[in-house]
From TrEMBL:
Record organism: Methanoplanus endosymbiosus
Membrane-crossing segments per the record: none
Similarity-based family: Belongs to the aspartate-semialdehyde dehydrogenase family.
Pfam family, one: Semialdhyde_dhC
Its EC number(s): 1.2.1.11
Keywords recorded for this protein, A-Z: Amino-acid biosynthesis, Methionine biosynthesis, NADP, Oxidoreductase, Threonine biosynthesis
NCBIfam families in the cross-refs: asd_EA, PRK08664.1
Active site: C147, H239
Record-given protein name: aspartate-semialdehyde dehydrogenase
Pathway the protein acts in: Amino-acid biosynthesis; L-methionine biosynthesis via de novo pathway; L-homoserine from L-aspartate: step 2/3; Amino-acid biosynthesis; L-threonine biosynthesis; L-threonine from L-aspartate: step 2/5
Domain Semialdehyde dehydrogenase NAD-binding: 3-129
Gene3D superfamilies attached to this UniProt entry: Dihydrodipicolinate Reductase, domain 2, NAD(P)-binding Rossmann-like Domain
UniProt cross-references to PROSITE patterns, sorted A to Z: ASD
Gene transcribed to yield this protein: asd
């Protein structure tokens, strides 16, 4: 078994990590970290568990450690659910101490030597791990994109060989993306908030890196242009987005691309049977009905129309956060980077 830990295990994404890793067939979850206030308590005492699944019983007995390099230096992989303002320096120090860091934080996503990976889209970018090691680092950092970027990039992946140079996207993002304390009920109930701090920039820049080309030493960003408008809506889980792409290829061919798409790898434990699911019902996908497809790891697409216009939905805290990091770690282990 590969020994792993979770940084920031008591928050919204941290709890998702614990849920996904508790019975993982490859990973032995042995360390959970949180703030000094929680350190020394059992996880059961420290966490305010808010997922709609029961807390894995054996995880409740783990004694929470202070979030520090010393707490995780004996592990093979740490999953980071830290806020960006805490993650930057600490993730670097942990990687320098010889540990692999799979991060959901934004701190290092755009660093030149850090891969920003969606396994189905750009697994070759893991070659940047060798670039980090060539510079003298014993461990490494691999990041996953922002939650809405993941849903959009996965939805575009089956048609990325079409001549597309311009993408417009309008998102309808769930409140769980803001964290447990992120947005007050009085601000979102019966309302739509047409602003999510830095979200539009993340979708526009991260996508160019993800769809870029790894030339053996760095990523050459894709020239594709993305214009995003992001909105918070009163949905608990599941980001939905309307996407416009400037291809004039026949809609029937685009639908066949979605229907026939298969992931370029297989047999990873968290991998869904279908990474992208095409729905032909006129009113799908919808977050409440489709966010848990593939155990929350699939992205659903539908309403494909001339334009080219279509709708995509994905689970933001599973496929868009903790599940994305776990799948990255499985790919890293499968490629023998540990």
């Amino acid at each position: 078994m590969i020994n792993v830990g979770v940084l920031g295990a008591t928050g919204a994404v941290g709890q998702r990590f614990v849920q996904l890793l508790a019975a993982h067939p490859w990973f032995n979850l042995k360390t959970l970290t949180a703030s000094e206030r929680s350190a020394g308590k059992s996880y059961r005492e420290a966490v305010n568990w808010r997922l709609d699944l029961a807390m894995p019983e054996k995880m409740g007995d783990i004694v929470v450690s202070k979030t520090s390099v010393d707490s995780v230096k004996d592990l093979d992989i740490v999953f980071s659910a830290l806020p960006a303002e805490l993650a930057g320096r600490l993730e670097t120090d942990i990687a320098d101490a010889g540990v692999a860091v799979c991060s959901n934080a934004a701190s290092h996503r755009m660093d030149a030597d850090i891969p920003l990976v969606i396994p189905e889209v750009n697994s070759d970018h893991l070659g940047l791990i060798d670039v980090q090691r060539d510079r003298g680092r014993d461990g490494f950092i691999v990041t996953n994109p922002n939650c809405s970027t993941i849903v959009m990039a996965m939805a575009l992946n089956p048609i990325r060989n079409r001549s597309i140079s311009d993408i417009r996207v309008a998102t309808m993002q769930a409140v769980s993306g803001a964290g447990f304390e992120g947005i007050a009920a009085m601000a979102i109930y019966d309302n739509v908030v047409p602003y999510i701090g830095s979200e539009e920039t993340k979708m526009e820049t991260e996508t160019q890196k993800i769809m870029g080309r790894f030339n053996g030493s760095e990523i050459e960003n894709s020239p594709i242009q993305i214009s995003a408008s992001c909105h918070r809506v009163p949905v608990i889980d599941g980001h939905t987005m309307a996407i416009w792409a400037d291809t004039h290829d026949p809609v029937e061919e685009i639908i066949n691309d979605f229907k026939n798409y298969r992931a370029p790898f297989s047999n990873l434990p968290t991998q869904p049977e279908k990474s992208v699911i095409y729905l032909d019902a006129i009113d799908r996908p919808q977050p409440r009905l489709d966010r848990n497809s593939g155990n929350g790891m699939s992205v659903s697409v539908g309403r494909v129309r001339e334009g080219l216009r279509f709708i995509a939905t994905g689970h933001n805290t599973i496929r868009g956060a903790a599940g994305a990091s776990v799948l990255n770690a499985e790919l890293i282990a499968g490629k023998k980077y540990l």
